[in-house]
Amino acid sequence: MKTKREESILDIVATFEEMADTVLIQLTLLEKYMSGPGKEESDRIIVAIKENEDKIDKFEIIISDKFISSIVLYQPVASDIRKIIAIYRMTINLERIGDRVVNILHSLGHIENSEEYKALAEVISVMLVSGITMVEKSLLSFINNDNEYAVWTIKNDEIVDEMNHKLLINSISKAKVSTKTREMLLSYVDLKDIITNIERIADHATNIAEASIYSIQGTDIRHTGLDANLPDHNENK
């Protein structure tokens, strides 16, 4: 029979996993929206994303309350404290990823019919998929107690940043597609917002991976870096 302390930890983990699933659904919906499914389906996706955003915000509050209650009422042991602190850190990053999805959707509403966006939509979608993969692997690291997924995510963060840089260069090179300079510049402002938000999603995935490593082995690598704290790992997992 599980103790109250054990039950409280399991409850926090279960709620966190629900929140993680909701954020992954948001990212999948955004990817689908960017594929241009048609107005009726796009409208349904917008409604679903807004509904899920409310759920994500509520999850953050619920997990925060459960975190405090567990500490105060059940005095968890050191390993449990490490786990729930890691969950709390990951929860903050998941909520921010949810915000980024809404930000991207808002920016898309301004530019999705522009020539500039249409010329770069495929590249942006590829970049988003890379960010989603990083989020998935960082979460799998924690859920499966697997350090390798966390290491993979952290080491691939620079790859997504490089994609961002190449995408901006590509964007500039395609500026000639627009004859209306003002509209083109406005479009690029929104394009930059979309690119920045996707990059931040990858950054939050890295934060989640770092929290997962902290939960698994008690090593906080936020300020010292991966190589200073961990042995070599298989990067291809």
Class inferred from helices and paired strands: mainly alpha
Main beta-sheet strand count, sense and barrel state: none
The poorly predicted ranges are 233-237
The total number of structural domains is: 1
Total strand segments: 0
Strand proportion, as a percent range, falls in: under 5%
Number of helices: 6
Going by CATH, the homologous superfamily would be: Phosphate transport system protein phou homolog 2, domain 2
Describe this structure in words.
The chain is 82% helix and 0% strand. The longest helix has 37 residues, at 181-217. With 237 residues, it is mainly α.
SSE layout and pairing:
Blueprint: H1 4-34, H2 39-74, H3 78-111, H4 115-143, H5 147-173, H6 181-217
Pick out its properties.
237 residues; 0% strand; disordered C terminus; Methane Monooxygenase Hydroxylase, Chain G, domain 1; mainly alpha
Outline:
With 237 residues, the protein is mainly alpha-helical.
